[in-house]
Amino acid sequence: MDPSVSPITSTTQTQLLPEPDLYLHTPGGKRIPAHATILASASPVLENFITSNKIVKIHGVPDGAVAAFVAFLYSSRCTEEEMDKYGMHLLALSHVYLVRRLKQRCIKGLGQRVSTENVVDVLQLARLCDAPDLYLKCVKLLANHFKAVKETEGWKFIENHDPRLELDILRFMDEREKRKRKSRKRREEERLYTQLSEAMECLEHICREGCTHVGPYDVEIGPQRKPCSKFATCQVLQVLIRHFATCERRLKKGACLRCKRTWQLFRLHSSICLSQDSCKVNLAVLTERDRQIRMKMEQENREEDARWKLLVKKVASAKAMSSLALPKRTL
């Protein structure tokens, strides 16, 4: 048998310890002397085992991993070199022997070292060792680099021998993609509501003070009028309003798309306006005949009331948030 080896000499240079009273046998046949009290205080599993045994056999890992494991039990330290060489073995040992501090160290260390080449192995070990944070990190890396990972031997092994894990990973990727699409859709909707809120503010501005080309009849609009701070939106609205005022097809249902959009904008403002009696926007540019057509269109659109009410609610909310967050318009 090979002579005994001890990983604790360098970690206990200034400590006076009694003679070792038990040995750990490695898979390679080496014996590592140790102290029962220290091992028992670090691991409840070892504490239960060494009460009736003076020899502890550790299987399934390299001798160096056993030495690093015992050294950690004495010093609570693990070097980067040891983590590079034995990180996965140490995670397995820390899980089996319930050494929580070493397990946390291994989860952090392996998380920093996981790559497309070893992600499948680390993922499988994380699942076996009840390390959900490390497992999730591996699944995310796998999902982000699936094209590269599926060419590795680890993934091919899963395909051939662990269809349940393969299904779990593919299901995670599918649900993750669905969440991404849902998040993108929500952001797009929020952007639309914000744009409509700005359009409502610009309508009020145009009908109250006037902008560069369109304004109320009692306000003079001249070449000296400078663009406002939201002129990009105001300019589009002014073009729509000027077109609406002269378009003959606005009286025919669905004949002019631009007129239809103008109707919808004025209707939206009418729905969210809190000062109906004094508002200068609501139907300010509409003739009596236009009002009659508007009433007819609203009657025909009753089947869309639920969607319209939701739109009104969202735009009103965006308008309220905008009024709190943004500075006043500058002319």
Structural account:
With 331 residues, the chain is mainly alpha-helical. It folds into two domains: 10-178, 2-Layer Sandwich (Potassium Channel Kv1.1, Chain A); 186-325, Up-down Bundle (CREB-binding Protein, Chain A). The protein has 14 helices and three strands. Strands 2-1-3 form a three-stranded mixed β-sheet. Mean pLDDT is 82; it is low at 10-14.
Helical segment count: 14
Principal-axis shape: elongated
How are strands sequenced across the largest beta sheet?
2-1-3
| Cα end-to-end separation | 92 Å
| CATH structural class of the largest domain | Alpha Beta
Structural class by secondary-structure content: mainly alpha
CATH topology of the largest domain: Potassium Channel Kv1.1, Chain A
Query: What's the gyration radius in Å?
Result: 36 Å
